[in-house]
Amino acid sequence: MPIQNNVTRFLQSQKVEFKTLESEAIKRSAEESAVLFHLDPFIVYKTIVGLRFTPGKPMLLVIPGPLEVDCKKTSAVIGEKKIRVATQKEAEDLTKLQTGGISALALLNHGFQIIVHETILSQSEIAVSGGQRGLSIRMSAADFLRITRAKTADIASQP
What we know:
The structure is a single chain. The protein is α+β, with helices and mostly antiparallel strands. The protein is built from five helices and ten strands. It is 25% helix and 30% strand. A five-stranded mixed sheet has the order 5-2-3-6-9, with helices on one face. A three-stranded antiparallel sheet has the order 1-8-7. It starts with 5 loop residues before the first helix and ends with a strand. The mean pLDDT is 94.
């Protein structure tokens, strides 16, 4: 029986078509998930928590697995002098989710600004965390953008 959680129930309530990709509930990188599920690593998006140096909302930076958050580009996009990537502990404390399970879909209306790397605009579908370790959601990129009301921008670069 497929995993049911707040994310899957929310997607069902919104009549969004999606497929659950389930695995052992361990922390995996987006690239490891891509290999496990036989997906192009550039359609497997990871969610990184970004923090401002000035008061303001923390950010969920959603980027393709092979890329890294570019703090300089992201700062420019949001009009800040500098931002930084949260530590694992900070990310878990802020989101109340374990790393490897942090998901924009699980954190809607929780006070985060959501920014997705602009490559999503050229994807028909993506895979993202389903809000817990061991659960990924494969869904239309357009539905993801519509539901999250995310801003799209160039916020990442090659490692």
